[in-house]
Write a structure and sequence with these properties.
The protein is an alpha/beta fold. It has eleven helices and five strands, in the order ααβαβααααβαβααβα. The structure holds cytidine-5'-monophosphate.
């Protein structure tokens, strides 16, 4: 199994980076970025944060408390409640995946104050992702979302943008929903996905966009293993460059 520390020793990586290595993975709904980010983190032995969970958590908090996710004050209230109670284990909550929560998440996500309230949680995690199950500090972190490479971690060591054709993303989502025993039609899923894409790309604060220095992977004709292989090549390339730079520095 390839791990970052196979190429550079843990100490080398620590000396070189002066902190955890940050990999930002952004992209639209159902592009495969979440699957990639989780698998990449596992493969490299890095920490993982799904930043979308924060917005989903705010949306669910709003819906559970009778607050209107489209109202900026209500959304900010929900964000404060979420920020006070947030823990990484929220990533495991399946109720955050419901379609009404997805839509409400992209509504609260367009409120600047909500994004501001959630900024520190994300920045702090990138700086200090904590310890792995063996009690060692994580050498790196993989974070997925919409604005990780542009706003949350503009200095991320590696940025990737995962994209795919909307029809293909919708087909993948339908398959996912049906496999969970939920009802879904291609037409409805495509429509919902386009609404969310439009809202995420056109909002004033931190819209979904490709960072200038991001590697783009179009996953339209790739399966999850192929996307992972491309991402690992990008990480390998980065580490080989870093290792060469470190050697030159020693002369
Ligand atoms: O990635 P996911 O589909 O879970 O995100 C749910 C919603 O949260 C997105 O549609 C988007 O509006 C918002 N989001 C965001 N910025 C992020 C992550 C998610 O605006 N970094």
């Amino acid at each position: 199994m390839f791990r970052a520390i196979d190429l550079l020793s843990g100490d080398d990586l620590k000396n070189l980076l002066k902190g955890p290595m940050v990999i930002a993975i952004d992209g639209p709904t159902a592009s495969g970025k979440g699957t990639l980010a989780q698998r990449l983190a596992k493969r490299l032995g890095f920490a993982y944060m799904d930043t979308g969970v924060l917005y989903r958590g705010v949306a669910k908090t709003a819906l559970d408390n009778g607050l209107d996710p489209e109202n900026a004050d209500d959304a900010a209230k929900a964000a404060k409640i979420l920020a006070e109670n947030y823990s990484l284990s929220l990533q495991e909550d399946p109720s955050l995946r419901l379609e009404k929560v997805s839509q409400a998440a992209s509504q609260v996500a367009s409120v600047a104050e909500v994004r501001n309230i959630l900024l520190d949680i994300q920045k702090n995690f990138a700086k200090k992702p904590g310890k792995n199950k063996d009690g060692e500090n994580y050498l790196g972190v993989v974070m997925d979302g919409r604005d990780v490479g542009t706003v949350i971690c503009p200095d991320a060591h590696i940025k990737m943008y995962i994209d795919a054709d909307a029809e293909i993303r919708a087909a993948r989502r339908v398959e996912q929903l049906i496999s969970k025993g939920l009802e879904a039609t291609h037409e409805n899923v495509l429509k919902e996905l386009q609404i969310r894409d439009g809202r995420d790309s056109n909002r004033d604060t931190a819209p979904l966009e490709v960072a200038d220095d991001a590697f783009t992977i179009d996953s339209s004709s790739l399966n999850a293993n192929e996307v992972l292989a491309r991402a690992l090549d990008i990480v390998r390339g980065y580490l080989i460059g870093a290792q060469a730079a470190m050697k030159m520095h020693q002369y």
